[in-house]
């Protein structure tokens, strides 16, 4: 709400008053037009037409009235409407020029006029053009003012305040645009004059930190002029009255390091000689300042991260990468990178910049080797642990991610892109660049963009598998040319170069009101503790997905939201990309570096492939595949759990889960690269030598990974049989050691994935669809019966002729030369009533055998099978065995069936039980429990012999096949 007294003052301003009254009115108005607090009052003043009266007051001779009036105009012209009206309607430039001529040495008047001029030029470049065209005296006066201020011996009457000097420098900066840049530099000598003032004040700042405000504005002016890439700027600054002012930028480097480095980087693009710019001195200064600090203190991180950033930006330009200078910087950069131990946004950004700087030396082998001497691989590994943790396993737990209509798993196209192209990296590069923005270096100061947002990848609906290419290479294409963090669009017809957000919110310096910123893991189901034969019908198959896995589910929408540039996740994703690129550079070193083949590094990279967007995954997998092209890493990796962990990724944790699809694609791709190494001539020879001549410990480690990586069955058979790999596995199975569980897992992979042994449940015939030729319809009309008496005294009466007709055993027993042929009550030893009754029922209902079997418990059914074998019913026995395989074989019953087969000495279902244990599609925990139950039976030798015999039988099929 407008103050009534303020409105009265505005009314009084339009009336003819004496000088004393005018002064009172102006003082009252001045108190009510503070910017931006009193914007409404300024608008009211303009609407009342008071600007005309204020411009008119500038004709008065009284200095104190002029001071207050200029102060009011300075605030009002910060409003664009007021500026347009005072210049276009009331021609304020003429009275201002007149005042400068009549009061050339009045500090207060000069300072206020400079402020008004700067505020006008801030709104429109057109006003700057008008000033230079119509009132050049104003510009000459400002330049002369700065010359006077830069004199060593200034007369008393010519001494000006620091505030007036700041306003003069600011005005010269705001007068700058694409049309005035050359006149200001060449005709008016702005840079030569300002450079001379820089030389004078820089020495005093080094001693007592004096004149910081003036120096900050000088640096800002030089930065704005440097953005126009005019070579005359360098010439003018090198030829001031006091000498080369560019050298003296080094003296005030710590006052505004980012701005000064940006000035140097802009001048580098137009400089003709390296000696024109003080790059060596600036680099040495940054190194000196960083080395002074204690790396373990917060003081270092808060004060010197800026210096490290500036040093990295200087080294980013090839012209600054002197071999000697870079060699001196590298140990320091690695040391600083190691000292950053907190995953804050600031430290992550600094780490990104440091890693990218290290990678800038990828074409100079001596500098790469210098980095490796500093143990840089372990340092970047610690940064990966920021993202994925410090786990030594590859358990990537996740909720089930359900696919929505129109969405696509992130890596379902992964194998297609890689295998369908001879150039692995280039194929990805082309596909990703169509839909992703490459991460760019963080800018240096508040005039550059802080971060580049990652756009979500628009996934294409292509299959995840394709024909493999054996000639896939992993040479990277040239990196995308992205703008330098110091670069600014070259001014053309635009009125002023753009300004952008700051790199660090805390790194900027707030300007006063007269600056140019006026406007504003899945659970498992526990198996039974005992493999009891008394259980009713078991579940047919234990699913790989146990209970409890469907409780938490996430959905993936077709369009993912873009990442926020300032988010920690986006920063970590960029850090992963830069580290992957650096590791890719190290992977090209010959001979290969042992550090790159370490299990912990590769596991961390694999985990990172699941972290963010497709671009991140592609870059990380690219680095992994490049490492795995080297043969020297094969045997060391086979002696670790790395290959086993990667193989585990290929198994699905959840049905219809896009995350599981992504993990499976990554796992298969990495295993394929390892397979190419292992099945090569060198790989086969090294592994065979290790199995034949290696130590027992090495043999055990090798055989635990061979089935995971060999897809060629002939090579696999020779390694397992000819080289003794299978014998080593059986030895591990006999030993009750910590490797027993891993041995079981690898044997199952060998049987199911490599030898493709069929699951008995899947290959059994349909028992209900066959009729037996030796079984005939029962004769219910026969009146001759026989009664069987069992050991417990119970009796079962049945048709005598029916039994004789069905079984040769009963025909000989009941109608032959035996004593029982004349008896009506026949004693049967070692037979249970339930089993005998079930047998007779099955014999009578042969066409409904499946339905009858499903009503029997496992123990009774096995007893019936034994009776059918004892009573010479081979076809019924075979059909019942088939029913057991199809309907009764499960995780809980397999050990019981195997024990029955051994104890009954029939050997029926013995091999089938072992085969089911090896190839059944169940979870690892259920399979382990099943084998524990098998070994708990106490028939270890028979069990191991059966496993070995089954594997040998299948391996022998491929032993003679040509490789």
Automatic annotation (TrEMBL):
<dbReference type="InterPro" id="IPR055445">
    <property type="entry name" value="ARM_ARMC5"/>
</dbReference>
<protein>
    <recommendedName>
        <fullName>BTB domain-containing protein</fullName>
    </recommendedName>
</protein>
<dbReference type="InterPro" id="IPR000210">
    <property type="entry name" value="BTB/POZ_dom"/>
</dbReference>
<feature type="compositionally biased region" description="Polar residues">
    <location>
        <begin position="462"/>
        <end position="473"/>
    </location>
</feature>
<dbReference type="GO" id="GO:0009653">
    <property type="term" value="P:anatomical structure morphogenesis"/>
</dbReference>
<feature type="compositionally biased region" description="Low complexity">
    <location>
        <begin position="495"/>
        <end position="504"/>
    </location>
</feature>
<feature type="domain" description="BTB">
    <location>
        <begin position="784"/>
        <end position="888"/>
    </location>
</feature>
<dbReference type="Pfam" id="PF00651">
    <property type="entry name" value="BTB"/>
</dbReference>
<feature type="region of interest" description="Disordered">
    <location>
        <begin position="441"/>
        <end position="564"/>
    </location>
</feature>
<dbReference type="Pfam" id="PF24768">
    <property type="entry name" value="ARM_ARMC5"/>
</dbReference>
<dbReference type="GO" id="GO:0005829">
    <property type="term" value="C:cytosol"/>
</dbReference>
<feature type="compositionally biased region" description="Pro residues">
    <location>
        <begin position="476"/>
        <end position="494"/>
    </location>
</feature>
<feature type="compositionally biased region" description="Acidic residues">
    <location>
        <begin position="526"/>
        <end position="557"/>
    </location>
</feature>
<dbReference type="InterPro" id="IPR016024">
    <property type="entry name" value="ARM-type_fold"/>
</dbReference>
<dbReference type="InterPro" id="IPR011989">
    <property type="entry name" value="ARM-like"/>
</dbReference>
<dbReference type="InterPro" id="IPR011333">
    <property type="entry name" value="SKP1/BTB/POZ_sf"/>
</dbReference>
């Amino acid at each position: 709400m407008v103050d009534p007294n303020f409105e009265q003052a505005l009314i009084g301003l339009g009336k003819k008053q004496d000088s004393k009254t005018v002064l009172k009115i102006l003082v009252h108005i001045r108190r009510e037009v503070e910017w931006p607090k009193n914007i409404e009052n300024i608008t009211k003043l303009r609407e009342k037409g008071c600007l005309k009266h204020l411009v008119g007051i500038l004709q008065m001779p009284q200095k104190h009235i002029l001071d207050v009036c200029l102060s009011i105009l300075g605030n009002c012209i910060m409003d664009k409407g007021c500026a347009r009206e005072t210049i276009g309607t009331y021609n304020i430039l003429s009275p201002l020029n007149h005042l400068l001529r009549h009061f050339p040495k009045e500090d207060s008047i000069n300072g206020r006029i400079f402020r008004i001029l700067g505020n006008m030029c801030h709104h429109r470049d057109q006003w700057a053009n008008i000033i230079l065209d119509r009132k050049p005296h104003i510009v000459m006066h400002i330049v002369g003012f700065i010359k006077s201020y830069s004199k060593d011996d200034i007369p008393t009457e010519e001494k000006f305040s620091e505030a007036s000097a700041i306003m003069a420098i600011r005005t010269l900066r705001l007068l700058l645009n694409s049309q005035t840049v050359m006149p200001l530099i060449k005709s008016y000598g702005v840079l030569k004059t300002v450079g001379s003032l820089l030389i004078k004040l820089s020495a005093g700042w080094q001693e007592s930190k004096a004149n910081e405000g003036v120096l900050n504005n000088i640096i800002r002016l030089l930065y704005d002029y440097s953005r126009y890439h005019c070579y005359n700027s360098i010439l003018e600054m090198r030829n001031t009255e006091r000498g080369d002012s560019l050298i003296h930028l080094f003296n005030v480097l710590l006052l505004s390091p980012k701005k000064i480095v940006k000035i140097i980087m802009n001048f580098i693009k137009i400089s003709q000689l390296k000696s024109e710019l003080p790059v060596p001195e600036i680099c040495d200064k940054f190194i000196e300042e960083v080395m002074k600090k204690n790396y373990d203190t917060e003081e270092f991180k808060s004060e010197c991260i800026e210096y490290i950033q500036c040093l990295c930006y200087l080294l980013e330009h090839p012209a600054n990468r002197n071999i000697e200078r870079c060699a001196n910087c590298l140990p320091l950069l690695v040391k600083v990178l190691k000292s950053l131990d907190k995953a804050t946004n600031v430290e992550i950004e600094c780490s990104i910049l440091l890693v990218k700087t290290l990678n800038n030396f990828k074409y100079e082998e001596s500098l790469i080797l210098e980095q490796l001497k500093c143990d840089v691989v372990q340092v970047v590994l610690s940064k990966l642990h920021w993202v994925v943790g410090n786990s030594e396993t590859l358990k990537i737990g996740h909720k089930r991610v359900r696919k929505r209509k129109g969405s696509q798993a992130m890596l379902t196209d992964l194998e297609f892109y890689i295998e369908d192209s001879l150039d692995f990296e280039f194929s990805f590069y082309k596909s990703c660049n169509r839909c992703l923005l490459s991460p760019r270096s963080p800018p240096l100061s508040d005039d550059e963009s802080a971060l580049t947002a990652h756009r979500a990848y628009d996934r294409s609906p292509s299959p995840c598998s394709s024909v493999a290419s054996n000639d896939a290479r992993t040479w990277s294409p040239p990196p995308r040319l992205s703008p330098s963090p110091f670069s600014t669009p070259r001014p053309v017809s635009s009125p002023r170069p753009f300004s952008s957000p700051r790199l660090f919110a805390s790194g900027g310096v707030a300007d006063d009101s007269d600056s140019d910123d006026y406007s504003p893991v899945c659970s498992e189901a526990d198996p039974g503790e005992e493999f009891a034969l008394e259980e009713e019908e078991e579940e047919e198959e234990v699913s790989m997905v146990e209970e409890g896995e469907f409780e938490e589910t996430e959905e993936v929408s077709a369009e993912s939201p873009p990442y926020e540039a300032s988010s920690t996740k986006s920063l970590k994703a960029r850090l992963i990309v830069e580290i992957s690129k650096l590791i890719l550079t190290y992977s090209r070193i010959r001979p290969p570096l042992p550090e790159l083949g370490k299990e912990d590094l590769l596991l961390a990279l694999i985990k990172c492939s699941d972290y963010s967007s497709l671009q991140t995954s592609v870059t990380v997998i690219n680095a992994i595949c490049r490492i795995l092209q080297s043969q020297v890493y094969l045997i060391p990796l086979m002696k670790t759990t790395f290959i086993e962990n990667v193989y585990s990724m290929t198994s699905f944790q959840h049905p219809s889960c896009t995350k599981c699809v992504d993990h499976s694609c990554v796992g298969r791709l990495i295993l394929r690269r390892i397979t190419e190494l292992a099945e090569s001539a060198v790989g086969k020879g090294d592994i065979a030598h290790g199995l034949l001549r290696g130590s027992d410990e090495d043999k055990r480690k090798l055989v635990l990974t061979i089935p995971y990586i060999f897809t060629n069955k002939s090579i696999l058979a020779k390694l397992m049989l000819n080289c003794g790999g299978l014998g080593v596995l059986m030895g591990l199975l006999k030993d009750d050691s910590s490797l027993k569980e891993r041995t079981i897992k690898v044997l199952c992979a060998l049987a199911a994935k490599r030898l493709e042994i069929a699951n008995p449940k899947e290959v059994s015939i349909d028992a209900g669809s066959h009729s037996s030729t030796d079984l005939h319809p029962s004769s219910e009309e026969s009146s001759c019966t026989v009664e069987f008496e069992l050991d417990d005294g119970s009796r079962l009466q049945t048709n005598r002729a029916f039994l004789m007709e069905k079984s040769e055993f009963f025909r000989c027993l009941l109608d032959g030369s035996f004593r029982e042929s004349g008896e009506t009550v026949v004693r049967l030893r070692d037979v249970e009533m339930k089993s005998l009754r079930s047998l007779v029922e099955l014999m009578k209902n042969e066409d409904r055998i499946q339905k009858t079997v499903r009503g029997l418990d496992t123990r009774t059914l096995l007893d019936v099978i034994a009776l059918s074998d004892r009573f010479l019913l081979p076809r019924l026995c075979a059909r019942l065995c088939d029913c057991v395989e199809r309907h009764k074989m499960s995780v809980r019953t397999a050990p019981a069936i195997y024990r029955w087969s051994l104890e009954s000495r029939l050997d029926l279902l013995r091999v089938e039980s072992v085969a089911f244990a090896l190839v059944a599609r169940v979870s690892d925990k259920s399979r382990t429990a099943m084998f524990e139950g098998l070994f708990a039976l106490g028939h270890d030798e028979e069990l191991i012999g059966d496993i070995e015999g089954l594997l040998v039988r299948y391996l022998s099929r491929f032993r003679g096949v040509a490789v």
